Amino acid sequence: MYIELPKKYRAVLSKFYDLDHGLFITDLDPYINEDYVAAYFKPFGCVTVCQIKNSPGSSKDRLAYVRFSTEAEADLADWAGPHFIGGTECKVRRVVSPKVEG
């Protein structure tokens, strides 16, 4: 579950839940892989998860989720946009998700 909220509301949510911080990326080139996306975002901080999935209902549209080790790293990556990944401008949204113990 990924939640897109303004920063002031993320602070309130973090009082009740431990949160993971990341980016949700759309309009990703269909030939880009997870390693490429993780390497693209590495200058902004420690990428702990990078997942790419096909968009529901479309075999060409791909979505990515990139999780960072800290909130500050995710914020920095978000603010550094616009992002051109593999030469294609992608839409990037800052998200949080409750940590899941595994």
UniProtKB/TrEMBL annotation:
GO molecular function: RNA binding
Ranges of residues in domain RRM: 21-97
Annotated keywords: RNA-binding
Pfam families reported in the protein's UniProt record: RRM_1
Protein name: RRM domain-containing protein
